[in-house]
Each structure stands twice: as structure tokens, then as C-alpha cells.
Amino acid sequence: MKIAVIGSGYVGLVTGACFADLGNEVICVDNDLDKIKKLKNNKIPFYEPGLDNLVKVNVREKRLSFTSEISEGVKESEVIFIAVGTPPREDGSADLSAIERVGKEIGTNINGYKLIVEKSTVPVRTGEWLRNVIEKYNVNNCEFDVASNPEFLREGTAIQDFMNPDRIVIGVENEKAAQILISLYQPLNAPILVTDIKSAEIIKHASNAFLSMKISFINAVANICELAGADIKKVAKGIGLDKRIGEAFLNAGLGYGGFCFPKDLDAFIAISKDLGYDFKLLKEVRNINDYQKLFPVRKLKEIYGNLSGKNIGILGLAFKPNTDDMRLAPSIDIINALHKEGANIKAYDPEAMENAKKIFKDVSITYCDNSYEVAKDSDAIVIVTEWNEFKYLDLFKIKDLMKDNVIIDGRNIYDRKKIEKLGFKYKAVGR
Ligand code: UGA
To answer: Sign of dihedral through CA atoms 351, 335, 343, 384?
Structure first.
């Protein structure tokens, strides 16, 4: 099938490359000329395991190409996925201006039947609105359908998630649109749920809100565990083995970050308000997350009282492992708070340091080449992101290099007994 994917960011590029790999002819479009130039030279503008190779192979096989012209993508394709950004406005609602621009361009350039699919995360009823935008510019009066096909990819495992999804959700207005999308996804052999457009739009927000709620719930229970002297890891296991609850997303830690959960939660709260419902539960999910992020700062203050002049080492900056994404990462709140307390900060992350440097312009941080450099002369080390390499550090060496012996394990990656035997003072979440 001939496909255009408009927006070559994280979602768009992964979607485009994967559809190409399934044998379709895909044009990825982006208005960022520099990005398109890089992509044409096989350079991926962000870190995602396996994506560089997937792009390279499919470009070589002539199934994947790039352009900065929406008109080219529209004219050449039957199915057009919209994967442009929907950043938050000040009140938390999604800014749809990029989608509006794309809708206008699609309407202007439409040259035959097109199925236009929302891939970006959008508020319920965006489908209806998008149809009107396109119709307004559709001077040639071409037939088209709008559909919603929310994405559930996770950064770091996006290709695997695309190729092996738990489900595919297709929100459509008619059978023709449903059949096109079903045949497009048929090679994946995954359960397909066909709904109306509005339900598909809500499925996306409700999924992310539910997962955020699970994380905040377990973090709140972790705080209870700490107060009661119980172990959150065992409690999470005991809860999760109930199939109705499930074990996934019950890792207590420093809360969720990234550009999806925090932004989508705010957007869902704003959508609910617009529709006349005060979604108080989700507001509390957000409050718990905000509190949880500063766990390491609270613990360090309990230990040292005053953090002024203390050397604090940060291991992990990205909002989660296997990504260089720093957007709304808990490390930002933690480092800003430590900086405010007057601490000296050293940090290391395997992938996210370049992005971190752009964010912490006003905070003095010593960026290190590895964990051992961070440990040198540190009073305390904080595990902020659970990269695999942090799980296998030579902790004897770390202890030798440190000035004091405090480890704040914000992601519960170490065994308390082993760590304490080595002579560390160890604080973990809910254990
Ligand atoms: C999330 C969803 O998982 C995807 O299904 C969705 O497509 C995507 O948002 C999106 O809307 O674009 P992502 O943000 O890449 O994916 O990351 P997750 O792996 O879901 O993790 C989100 C955050 O939750 C991370 O900060 C992670 O550290 C945190 N988390 C996750 C926990 O604190 N505990 C857990 O048990 C699981």
C-alpha cells in the first residue's frame, strides 16, 4: 500500500519505517528541512534501539523515502497518517495547530480518495473537527475518510511494540476505512478492535491515564510500606499476581516522566473539564507523581540536614532507560531541587547527556564519562534511571571512590542486604 506519514518525530518515523518493513511504500514527511536532510543521509535524529538499521534497510530497498513537502506525500499516497506533535498549552489542553496546518495542506492537495488517519494523541472529537478542516480546503471535492489509530509504542522498545502489539485500535466512520486499515495491519497477526472514532480517541487517553494511575498507586503504597516497615517489591508482586490487576507497571520509583504520561494526563483532565466532568482522580495521580519525584531530595535532607556543599552524584538522567529523551524526566526536578539546596552535582547517563546539557543551562553540573567518575569524592549517589549498566557496577570500587557512603536507590535496583554488607548507607523506595 502507498502510505504517507506526516511528522517524522518519534511516532511518525517508527511507524513509517515499520510499515515500510512490512512491504509498503512509505513517504515520511517533515517540515524540518534539517531533519529531512539527516534522514536522507541515514541519520536518525534521536536514539531508538534498532531504528537506524530499519531505516537504512528500507531506504535501500526503496520502500522508504523522505520529503519536506506535504503535497508530495498526499499526492503519492492512499493512506495518510498524521503524526505531528500535539504539545500542551498552558492550561494542559493539547495544541492542535500543527494538525490544523496539516489538514489544510491535505485538503489543498487531495487528488483522489484518501484515508486520513490520526496517529498523534488527540482529544476526543478531533476526528470530526479534522474532517471539517480538510473539507473546507477540498476544492477538488475528492472523497476522503478520517480514522483514528492511536499508537501504544513505548520509547526504547518502539519497534518491538509496533511489530508485536497487544492490540490495534481502529476508529472509523465506515466499512471501507476499516477494511483498508485492517489489511494494512493484517501481517502483524494481532487482535484488532474496530470502534467509532471518538471511542478510539478516548482509548488512547484512558490507557495512558490508567497506566499513570497504576504507577502513582504503587508509589503511594510504597510510602505506606516505608512507614510500616514492609517491602513494596513483595507487596507489588502479591498484588500483581492477581490477573485482574497484573504485574506490569507496578514498579515503585521516582514516578513517571517523558512526553506522554504527564502531557496526556493533563490533556485528559482538560478534555474532561471541557465536557463538564471534574476528573479529580487523575488530578491526584498527578499530585502523587509530583511528590514522588523529589523522594531522593527528602531522603538526602533526612540524612544530612543541610545539603549545601554536599557532593551528590546522579546516575541516570533520561526519563527511563534505553532512550536519550529528557522531556519531563524526574531528573530535572531532582537536580533543580538539589541545586537550590546548594549541593554540588555530578551526573552521568549513557545516552541523554547531550539533551540534558540543553535543559540545565543555568545549573552547574559536572558531566562525567562513567559511573565511577561520578562516584569519585561523592557524598551520596542517587540512582535516578534504571539503566542496566548501573545494576552491574563494581560497588567495591564505587565505595572506595566515594567520600561518604550513601546510596539513594530511586529505582529499587539493588539488594539491600548486599549493599549494606558492603558498608553503604542505603535508602530505597518503599523497602
Ligand atoms: C507510554 C506508554 O507506555 C505507551 O503505550 C504510549 O504509546 C506512549 O506513552 C505514548 O503515549 O506515546 P513511554 O512514555 O515511552 O510510553 O514510556 P513507558 O515505558 O510507558 O514509561 C513511562 C514512565 O513511567 C517512565 O518514566 C517510567 O520510568 C515510568 N514507570 C513505568 C514507572 O515509574 N513504573 C513502572 O512500573 C512503569
So the answer is: negative
Judge whether 2-195 and 204-291 match in fold.
Answer: no
pTM, two decimal places: 0.96
Task: Kindly indicate the confidence band of residue 116, based on its pLDDT and cuts at 50, 70 and 90.
Answer: very high
Q: For residue 251, give the ligand 1 atom closest to its CA.
A: 36
Closest alpha carbon to 201 in 164, 179, 159, 172:
172
pLDDT value for 408: 98
Which atom belonging to ligand 1 lies closest to the Cα atom of 204?
Answer: 11
pLDDT in tens, 164-182: 999 999 999 999 999 999 9
Instruction: Name the CATH code of domain 204-291 (choices 1.10.357.20, 3.90.1640.10, 1.50.10.20, 1.10.1040.10).
Output: 1.10.1040.10
Ligand 1: list residues with CB < 6 Å: 121, 151-155, 208, 211, 215, 249-251, 253, 255-258, 260-261, 264, 319-320
Superfamily of domain 2-195: NAD(P)-binding Rossmann-like Domain (3.40.50.720)
Nearest in space to 99 (alpha carbons), one of 126, 135, 79 = 126
